Amino acid sequence: MTSEVVVERVAKEIAGDIAWSESPGKSMRKWRELFDVTQLMLSRRMGISPSVLSDYEKGRRTPGTGFVKKFVRTLIEIDGERGYAVVKELARGHRLPPSALLDMREFQQEVPLGKVIDAVNGVLLCGKGKEEKKLYGYTVLDSIAAIESMTGYEFLSIMGFTTERALVFTNVGTGRSPMVAVRVSFLKPGAVIIHGPKAVDPLAVKLAEGDGIPLVLSRAPDVNSLLNGLRGLLGS
Q1: Domains of the chain listed by start with CATH number
Q2: What is the pLDDT of residues 139-170, one digit of tens each?
Q3: Is the predicted pLDDT of residue 89 greater than 90, yes or no?
Q4: 100 touches 149 (CB < 8 A)
């Protein structure tokens, strides 16, 4: 099964490649051909004529952000009907770990740590005085799946566009294993949130203090509530 998060991440990569290309039309054609979709099929699905799509690909028209988004979304919808063959291959190329990754988003603008703590019904275990620290996104991992399946390289890949984000671990026993993983990584998140433990291992707090990383215990009743709280910050 291909998770929604992985699909969205791949879509953003494709859209970014087109938007930043010196020749957006050539980039569009490249992606259409990689997804093995004809101009006729794609244009019909997008509700435009083949000649219009051809004009974009040949550089006679310049695509706006809305058109690029629709173009990418349509390619991925077609790929989804084929079992996400291309998306899965692209995800493997970027080393995205679909089994462990529950969600990964970027905020529209910076969000203070204190607001994130409130959103997850959290308690600050260490890092007092850093409630105004600016965070720019979050990544949510199932801690057991991460430990069982993720390599060190994959752990780095889940940091998203910036490390100044909340790294959230669910299904946590005592908090020790997530903090050990963070400790051995040379990229440090802006804050760590753990969800699940009834009692937090003092070593987890000590490791967080050693790295100067705020550590938060989420008391959200379940993972869905945790995710909904975080997603409520996306429009902030």
Answers
A1: 4-93 (1.10.260.40), 101-231 (3.40.1390.20)
A2: 899 988 877 766 665 666 666 556 889 999 99
A3: no
A4: yes
Closest by alpha carbon to 138, among 212, 221, 224, 233? 233
Yes or no: say if 176 and 203 are a contact pair by the CB < 8 Å rule.
Answer: yes
Ramachandran region, residue 141 (left: φ > 0; alpha: ψ -120 to 50; beta: rest): beta
3-class DSSP state of 40: helix
140 with 104: CB under 8 angstroms? yes
Q: Which amino acid, 45? A: R
Please give the Cα distance from 133 to 166 (Å, whole number): 11
**Is residue 13 very low, low, confident or very high in pLDDT (cuts 50, 70, 90)?**
confident
Q: Map tokens 């997603």 to a residue.
A: 231
Q: How high is the mean pLDDT of the chain?
A: 88
Task: Give the DSSP per-residue string, 66-115.
Answer: HHHHHHHHHHHHHHHHTTSHHHHHHHHHTT--TTTEEEEEEEEEEEEHHH
Report the amino acid identity of residue 153.
Y
Residues 57 and 33 sit within 8 Å (Cβ to Cβ): no
In the chain, what is the greatest distance between 2 CA atoms, to the nearest angstrom?
A: 65
pTM of structure? 0.67
182: left (phi over 0), alpha (psi -120 to 50) or beta: alpha
**How far apart (Å, rounded) are the C-alpha atoms in residues 205 and 220?**
20
Q: Helix and strand tally (H, E) in the chain?
A: 12, 6
